[in-house]
Design brief:
67 residues, 5 strands, globular, mainly beta
């Protein structure tokens, strides 16, 4: 199985739309669980990494790394 590369600050598209009308989420914390924040209403959700990988469709915008 291909491992998707994502990092803190990336904006990702999830398979299901959020009730506020958007399905773009920003990754704000990573670990065993991943915290994502809705780009529409700023609601944040903590989900297990495995579940996140299953529900993520694609990376919409990569985070700017100051390198």
């Amino acid at each position: 199985m291909e491992s998707k590369q994502y990092a803190i600050g990336d904006v990702v598209e999830m398979k299901k739309q959020h009730p506020c009308g958007t399905n773009a989420w920003k990754i704000i914390r990573m670990g065993a669980d991943i915290r994502i924040k809705c780009t529409g209403c700023q609601h944040s959700v903590l989900i297990p990494r495995r579940e996140f990988e299953k529900k993520m469709k694609r990376i919409l915008q990569q985070a700017d790394t100051g390198e």
